[in-house]
């Protein structure tokens, strides 16, 4: 366990560190807000012991800032010289979890550390369960792309964000060409394998962390591209089409090419869609046109 001790008084930092070290934990010290934030940025801090009276920024303000900046929860115990109830309450309201009065008693300090470690462990276990649950409920087991349920949620969220931030949201609907004849001739197992490979090829062309690839159903996929212009989406669609050509997954029974191709439909939020459902519909319509125009192409 790495424990960050934030206190402007050197003697206290040293005394508290000695207690922590004696218990087999690793102390890391900071004399104020700037140093503390730098340490936290580097990560791997499991608990914070926080002084309240400090010149640069007091412990309450620093705690509020940490709670705002840090994505994950780290337990914070205040070290306070005051035993006033209102003072303690203020610390909890600022986002602290517990407090200790100075001078620090080694037995009390280590007992409180153990209590916090237990809570942190429970939270970590719960987070793990939640991640597994999210994977189970939102990922397609075959391709590991986001499933339909995940897509619905992501699309709704992306639409809200693009409204709030007034950005452009693009969407590409992909439908593999002549996939029925692929299955009929190569068998369903190889069809499944092909869907996996197809997913990987498309995923490789989605470079931004916010981009999402979902399996809409069967051999149909949706790429959700937040913060992307129409021209940007058209470029990605062209890249996907050439990546499929490069990958050259053999399809001897396709009328379009000797390899697996797809038809792509592109829509963009600034082309008049009134909601996310309409954005999806526009892209789906464009796929239909791409099929009509000969497949292995994209249509906006
Ligand atoms: P088009 O170019 O017009 O899109 O023709 P297509 O044959 O791709 O379209 P169609 O909708 O007629 O057929 C889709 C096929 O996709 C039907 C089914 O055999 C196959 N398919 C759908 N889901 C799966 C799956 O999970 N695994 C496998 N192996 N095949 C699937
Ligand atoms: Mg102080
Ligand atoms: Mg289809
Ligand atoms: Mg079809
Ligand atoms: Mg198809």
Secondary structure elements and their pairing?
Blueprint: E1 2-6, H1 10-22, E2 26-30, H2 33-42, E3 47-51, H3 59-69, E4 76-80, H4 85-93, E5 98-101, H5 106-138, H6 148-165, E6 169-176, H7 179-186, H8 188-205, E7 212-217, E8 220-226, H9 230-247, E9 262-268, H10 276-292, E10 298-299
The structure holds 3'-deoxy-guanosine-5'-triphosphate (GH3) and magnesium ion (MG) (4 copies).
One magnesium ion binds at residues 7-9, 51, 53-54.
Low-confidence stretches: none
* Strand residue percentage: 15-25%
Which ligands, by name, code or SMILES, are bound?
3'-deoxy-guanosine-5'-triphosphate, magnesium ion
User: What general outline do the C-alpha atoms trace?
Assistant: elongated
Q: Structural class given helices, strands, pairing?
A: alpha/beta
Separation of the first and last Cα atoms: 54 Å
Number of DSSP E strands: 10
Query: How large is the count of helical segments?
Result: 10
SSE order, one letter for each helix or strand: EHEHEHEHEHHEHHEEHEHE
Percent helix, as a range, is: 40-55%
Mean pLDDT: 95
The largest beta-sheet arranges its strands as 2-1-3-4-5
How is the main sheet built?
5 strands, parallel
Rounded to the nearest angstrom, the radius of gyration is: 27 Å
Architecture overview:
Its cofactor is Mg(2+). It holds the Pfam family GGDEF. It catalyses: 2 GTP = 3',3'-c-di-GMP + 2 diphosphate. This is diguanylate cyclase. This protein has a five-stranded parallel sheet, with helices on both faces. It is elongated and about 80 Å long. It has ten helices and ten strands. The mean pLDDT is 95. It is α/β, with parallel strands linked by helices and 300 residues long. The site of one magnesium ion (MG) has 5 residues, from strand 6.
């Amino acid at each position: 366990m790495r424990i960050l001790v934030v206190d402007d008084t050197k003697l206290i930092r040293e005394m508290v560190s000695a207690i922590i070290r004696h218990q087999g934990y690793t102390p890391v010290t900071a004399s104020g807000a700037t140093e503390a934030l730098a340490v936290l940025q580097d990560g791997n801090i499991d608990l914070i012991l926080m002084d309240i009276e400090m010149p640069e920024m007091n412990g309450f303000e620093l705690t509020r800032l940490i709670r705002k900046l840090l994505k994950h929860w780290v337990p914070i115990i205040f070290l306070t010289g005051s035993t006033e109830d209102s003072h303690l309450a203020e610390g909890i309201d600022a986002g602290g979890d517990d407090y200790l009065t100075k001078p620090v008693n080694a037995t009390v300090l280590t007992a409180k550390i153990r209590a916090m470690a237990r809570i942190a462990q429970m939270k970590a276990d719960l987070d793990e369960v939640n991640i597994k649950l999210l994977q189970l409920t939102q990922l397609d087991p075959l391709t590991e792309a986001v499933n339909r349920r995940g897509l619905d949620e992501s699309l709704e969220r992306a639409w809200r964000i693009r409204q709030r931030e007034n950005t452009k949201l693009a969407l590409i609907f992909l439908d593999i060409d002549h996939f029925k004849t692929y299955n009929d001739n190569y068998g369903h197992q190889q069809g499944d394998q092909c869907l996996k490979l197809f997913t990987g090829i498309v995923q490789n062309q989605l470079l931004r962390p916010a981009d999402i690839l979902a399996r809409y159903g069967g051999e149909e996929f949706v790429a959700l591209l937040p913060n992307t212009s129409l021209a940007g989406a058209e470029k990605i669609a062209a890249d996907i089409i050439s990546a499929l050509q490069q990958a050259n997954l053999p399809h001897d029974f396709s009328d379009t090419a000797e390899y697996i191709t797809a038809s792509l439909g592109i829509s963009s939020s600034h082309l008049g869609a009134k909601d996310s459902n309409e954005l999806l519909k526009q892209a789906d319509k464009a796929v239909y046109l791409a099929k009509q125009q000969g497949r292995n192409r994209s249509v906006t």
